[in-house]
Write a structure and sequence with these properties.
By secondary structure, the protein is of the alpha+beta class. The protein contains five helices and seven strands. Helix 2 packs across helix 3 and helix 4 packs across helix 5.
Length: 170
């Protein structure tokens, strides 16, 4: 059992967690912040493909949100992952990602994980490369959305990280 597992309860989010998830995303200063309404919907409609970490007081300390690609139901797309500033540096993001992949792979026969990362986000790049190593999977990387596709000036390209096939759970 890791420190994160001992300290946090990993759980499926509920609508009541939407505001806390929005706050953690906002405070990350790295994620593209969606509306607070979208986080409420996410916790309602995509709870089965998302995980929250709760601290000893039951407060949300981190989250990972995802969905299954409609055209590739064996592919889990990780939309966002973030840990509250007070809980960073203890491996919680990796624990969240592992827990989500394990649950969805077992329930839905997922063999591949996808996410997008901007070229300047070294922490996310390291997180997903580490995830791939832990799961005996390769990583393919390519630009998915070029910077010119974004309507706002200054958005960096989003690079697709395709991780798989995931090794079967032991």
């Amino acid at each position: 059992m890791t420190a994160a597992q001992a300290q946090f309860q990993l759980d499926q989010p509920s609508v009541a967690d939407g505001a806390a998830i929005w706050r953690i995303a906002r405070d990350s200063k790295v994620l593209d912040l969606n509306s607070s309404y979208s986080y409420l919907l996410w916790c309602r409609d995509f709870a089965a493909t998302s995980v929250v970490a709760r601290d000893e007081a039951g407060e949300v300390a981190g989250f990972v949100t995802g969905y299954l690609r409609p055209d590739r139901p064996d592919t889990l797309v990780v939309w966002q992952i973030a840990v509250d500033d007070a809980h960073r540096g203890h491996g919680l993001a990796g624990e969240l990602l592992d827990a989500l992949a394990a649950r969805v792979a077992a329930e839905r026969q997922v063999t591949t994980v996808e996410t997008t990362i901007t070229p300047d986000n070294a922490a996310s790049q390291a997180l997903f490369h580490s995830f791939a190593r832990r799961h005996g999977a390769g990583v393919e990387r390519r630009v998915l959305f070029d910077a010119g596709l974004f309507p706002d000036d200054g958005h960096l390209p989003e690079e697709l990280y395709r991780i798989g096939p995931l090794a079967p759970a032991a």
